[in-house]
Amino acid sequence: MNLASRPTVLFVDDEERILRTLVILFRPHFEVLSTTDPQEALLWLSTRDVHVLVSDQRMPLMSGSELLARAREISPVTVRILLTGYSDLDAAIEAVNGGEIWRYLNKPWTIETIQATLRDAAVVASAQRAVLAGGGSVREPRRAAPAEVLLIDGDPESRAALPAALPAGTVVHQADSLTQAIEILGRRPVGVVVTEVSVGGDDMTHLLRSLKQRYPDVVGIVVTSLRDTPRLIRLINQTQVFRYLPKPLRQGMLSRALEAALARHEELRNAGNLVPATLRVDDAATEVERTLSQRIGDYLGRLRGRQPTLGA
Amino acid sequence: MSTVAELVRECPVLMPDECISRAAEVMLDPVCDSFLSLPVLDDGRPVGVVTRHSLQQIYLSRFGRDLHARKPVGEFMRRAPILVDAMMPVEEASPRITTRIGFPIREDFIVTRDGIYTGVGVVVDLLKAMEQRVARRNEEIASAYRQLKESQMHLVQSEKMASLGQMVAGVAHELNTPLGYVRNNLELIASLATSMRDMADTNRDFLRLLDTPDADAEVIAGFVARLRDEAERGEAAILLGDLGQLLEDTLFGCSQISELVGSLKDFSRLDRAASEDVDINDCVTAALLIARHVLKDKAEVIRDNGVLPPLTCVPSQINQVLLNMLTNAVHAIEGRGRILVRTRHENGSVTISIQDNGKGMPREVVEKIFDPFFTTKPAGQGTGLGLPICYRIVQDHGGSIRVASEPGKGTRFLISLPLSLGGDTSSGSPS
């Protein structure tokens, strides 16, 4: 293997024995950096080209979510993964909203899971670099219509808050059922979907996953009053949720999230074909989920006027 | 609720114009044996009573009978009889009657309904009714007390379960880490073993090849190149190094796990009540280990251990107190802080000081922290019994807890335990 082309992975954990295991495991395929000191990790991120960062959450000197958020500022191209043994909702929210993590992995991990995750992460990381480098096949920014926003939530408070939080002139659609949402998604150039976790009894995770698989440039924001860590983890790992905002919604937080989401959508849209294949989300776990995703996907495919950016 | 109506007895009555001799006759009738007086009615309404005492006075005085026997009752009757409404509760009627009745008791009370006579009541019946009520009330109070005591025991139990739950969660998290890497290391060792076997196979094949008389020179050269390459890269050494490291870490992980399990056993020690020769420093170590998962990313713990003589105490209870103090200290810290745990031996006591640099408490909170059910945590998050139970445990050990706090600066709890127990801990303790 050509050593120079090996991706670099950085592990941060306060338990050095875990680091040693990870080093021995990944040394054959990665350039491996590891440290128990988050400050040293930040230093490496600013001086070296790190493809993937895997951080523990609870560490004595700095929390993992804080480290990931700072890593995002220092090295946005680094794919960020939280690896934690604690089920801590606030930390997970911080890791999504601040750290924009790509995956949330549970401890203890199995060798197969972590190997598969890191392999995918390395592919995503190279693709992101190619996009940033302005690789040959990047399309000219399209002079397409500005992105529209879809809110899927019957909650009157969200309905009132959303239009006020958006830049003037942004078109907002509102749906209070899955069918209505799909119908709007089929007709309109929606770039950002803001949704409750569950609407009219339907789990919106399936819709978000199908959307992300077919139209990876659509960015998802979840607004919810549920406080449920396992569901948030699913949203991260299966739908690549961009922001997770607990209700009651705060205007400032909502408008910042929307602004960032519209910008991210723009970025993904301009990147064209390069990103999609690499930002693929996890395959649906169960047969039921696959069937449902397939159905939503087919429906979207039939309805939506524009070509899917991802070749099926 | 019982009323005066229940006390009513039937009694012969007099009219105001009936004569004294008639009253005396009636009074002598055996039906009147239990009465002290006879009611006098006018048109159904009581207007007075003639008492046995007044009749006796008339008949016992000289010529009394000749002078007064023919006179009407109206002249001799007591004009202010004691009247009570039939619907009045006994409890309300009782003080009204007793304040009006003289000593010795010379009359009965008259029971009316809307002013109309319904019968007579005697004081002894009233006293009996009151006695029954008091007995019933006592029973109610005793049962309420029993219930209170039971629910208090439940609460103490649930606080104990809560701290047990916290402990189990803590230990589970602490076990998770070594268990995780021990397992991963074993998986890795298995895959490294495969590489080792491949290397061994190569060596064996090569030796066989060398033993083969007509071996192909090119094949031999291929083997030699491969083995040389392996040797140059030091693959065997790397493998062995990795294996050694992984095995060492795995053993360390196992010792961590057994230490945790051991501390859990020590921590609860449900198998014994009071124990002699307990080193409080060991209790602090165990409590810190159990609380590690909450302390780890919140506070730096600084220990200052004094040399302590052995102490007689119930270790599981002292551990519960220490765990409670440590978790309170963590909860007081916003962001990252410091907890200082100092133990000392002074004046026949062991003192444990637990000091945090958290947000502290205002005086009005400090005054209430040992009150049952007082909590500063949001509803549903604290029972408000943690510190009261700690207080009680320490008291049962003949010791004391003191607290000093300053808002914005921190809090210090000082537990003092005498070296030997004064009283019996096993009976008065909540375990």
Summarize the structure.
The complex is a heterodimer of chains A (312) and B (431). With 312 residues, chain A is an alpha/beta fold.
Q: Kindly state the percentage of residues in helix of chain A.
A: 40-55%
* Strand residue content of chain A: 15-25%
Query: Cα distance, first to last residue of chain A?
Result: 32 Å
Number of strands of chain A: 12
What does the radius of gyration of chain B come to? 46 Å
Output the CATH homologous superfamily of the largest domain in chain B.
Histidine kinase-like ATPase, C-terminal domain
Low-confidence stretches of chain B: 423-431
CATH class of the largest domain in chain B: Alpha Beta
* Average pLDDT metric of chain A: 84
Q: Can you write the helix and strand succession of chain A as a string? A: EHEHEHEHEHEHEHEEEHEHEHH
What is the topology, as strand order, of the major beta sheet of chain B? 7-9-10-12-11
Spatial arrangement of strands, main beta sheet of chain A: 2-1-3-4-5
Secondary-structure class of chain B: alpha+beta
Shape of chain A: globular
Question: Radius of gyration of chain A over alpha carbons?
Answer: 19 Å
Largest interface: A-B, 19 and 23 residues
In the CATH hierarchy, the third-tier topology of the largest domain in chain A is known as Rossmann fold
Oligomer: heterodimer
The CATH topology of the largest domain in chain B comes to Heat Shock Protein 90
Number of helices of chain B: 14
Contiguous low-pLDDT stretches of chain A (5 residues minimum) are: 135-139, 276-280, 305-312
